[in-house]
Amino acid sequence: MPKEKKPKPLPKRISRIVERCKSGERLHCQFRPRALGDADGVRAYWFEPSGATCGSYSARQAIELGLVVPSDTGLFSASDAQTYVAAQV
Asked: Which pTM value belongs to this model?
């Protein structure tokens, strides 16, 4: 009899982002010029109003998993939004 696969728990770095957003902070994205050797693209993420920075990889994962959602559409669509809040469960 095969064992049932248990869902993997969220990494702490992602759950911290969700906790901060649930406590009222917003995750913001800013486009910045790419420097030579940049591997993380041209987006920087931080929380407002605290101003604490957030890792690009972790922020992108939280967005892709749907744990944080755009609070408003971006200039062209929701896919390029710059402000994210915790998803309503």
From this structure: 0.77
